[in-house]
């Protein structure tokens, strides 16, 4: 059944997640790069393991030598303009050279996942202006998680693939996802099942004590579940109400029926 439910567009509502620094290396040798023999330096950027883990969703992935789907664009603006791209991998480094001491610059960073020709920005940040001085300088950026724009829920979920879902893995959570399941009506929820499969779901109706929802595993077709009862557990991989293998349940917690993740399954409410 086609679901033409519309929801308001999201204008990249963001949440600050972490900070990192970019350091201007001291030009101790007095290197000159312009006609006026002005002192210049280099601006180096290195991806710390914790930053890579936050973007890719796991420390083991962050250490991997093969992260071909995750990249970071670093752009300098102001008195000096240049852009470099590096993979999101712990220890990845790039350096901007020939920056005049005394110049005023700011940095813009975008971290994104790629799937074929598609590019999904998952984190971005911009620093304040900084005047570059001899010695060590730090540029602090607040990287923010960007929410995607969603218009038609069923079409949006159908078009999702594993690379797009994996890009948000760092935001997936276990435990109680929402204190009241009725608040989830019309929202899109990304998930990773207890068996490691990525997907997305949305509640299409809430008529206590039952709900209906649609869901899709990456690489599979869109599916529908009607008359799912509160108090049950659901296995998103097997399409069963099996408590032994359940990925989530609608459970009474402190007098409210909550949406709860089980068996190490993880969820993220997108909007």
Key descriptive features of the protein:
271 residues, mainly beta, nine-stranded antiparallel β-sheet, five-stranded antiparallel β-sheet, 4 helices, 18 strands, 9% helix, 46% strand, disordered N terminus
Q: How big is the Rg?
A: 23 Å
Structural class: mainly beta
Count of individual beta strands: 18
Question: What share of residues is helical?
Answer: under 10%
**Main β-sheet, in a few words?**
9 strands, antiparallel
Proportion of beta-strand residues: over 45%
Straight-line N-to-C gap: 23 Å
Q: Give the integer mean of the pLDDT values.
A: 76
Number of helices: 4
Q: How is this structure best described in words?
A:
There is one protein chain. With 271 residues, the protein is mostly beta strands. Helix content is 9%, strand content 46%. It contains 4 helices and 18 strands. The chain has helices at 49-56, 59-63, 153-159, 162-166, and strands at 14-25, 40-46, 70-78, 82-87, 93-100, 104-115, 118-126, 130-131, 138-146, 176-178, 189-192, 198-207, 210-217, 223-229, 233-234, 248-253, 256-261, 266-269. Strands 1, 2, 3, 4, 5, 6, 7, 8 and 9 form a 9-stranded antiparallel beta sheet that branches. Strands 14-13-12-11-18 form a 5-stranded antiparallel beta sheet. A 4-stranded antiparallel beta sheet has the order 10-17-16-15, with no helix packed on it. The model is unreliable at 1-35 and 58-67 (pLDDT under 50).
């Amino acid at each position: 059944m086609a679901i033409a439910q519309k929801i308001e567009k999201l204008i990249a509502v963001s949440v600050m997640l972490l900070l990192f620094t970019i350091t201007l290396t001291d030009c101790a040798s007095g290197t000159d790069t312009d006609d006026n023999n002005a002192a210049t330096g280099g601006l180096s950027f290195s991806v710390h393991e914790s930053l890579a883990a936050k973007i890719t969703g796991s420390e083991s992935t962050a250490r991997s030598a093969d992260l071909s789907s995750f990249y970071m664009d670093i752009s300098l603006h102001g008195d000096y303009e240049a852009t470099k791209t590096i993979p999101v991998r712990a220890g990845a480094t790039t350096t901007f050279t020939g920056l005049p001491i005394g110049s005023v610059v700011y940095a813009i960073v975008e971290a994104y996942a790629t799937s074929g020709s598609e590019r999904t920005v998952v984190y971005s940040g911009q620093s304040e202006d900084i005047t570059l001085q001899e010695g060590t300088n730090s540029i602090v950026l607040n990287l923010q998680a960007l929410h995607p724009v969603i218009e038609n829920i069923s079409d949006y979920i159908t078009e999702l693939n594993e690379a797009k879902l994996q890009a948000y893995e760092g935001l997936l959570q276990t435990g109680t996802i929402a204190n009241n399941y009725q608040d989830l009506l019309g929202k899109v929820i990304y998930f990773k099942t207890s068996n490691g499969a990525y997907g997305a779901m949305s509640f299409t109706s809430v008529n206590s004590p039952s709900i209906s929802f649609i869901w899709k595993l990456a690489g599979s077709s869109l599916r529908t579940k009607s008359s799912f009862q509160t108090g049950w557990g659901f296995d998103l991989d097997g399409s069963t109400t099996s408590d032994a293998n359940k990925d989530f349940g609608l459970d009474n917690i402190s007098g409210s029926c909550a949406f709860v993740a089980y068996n190490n399954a993880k969820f993220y409410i997108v909007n």
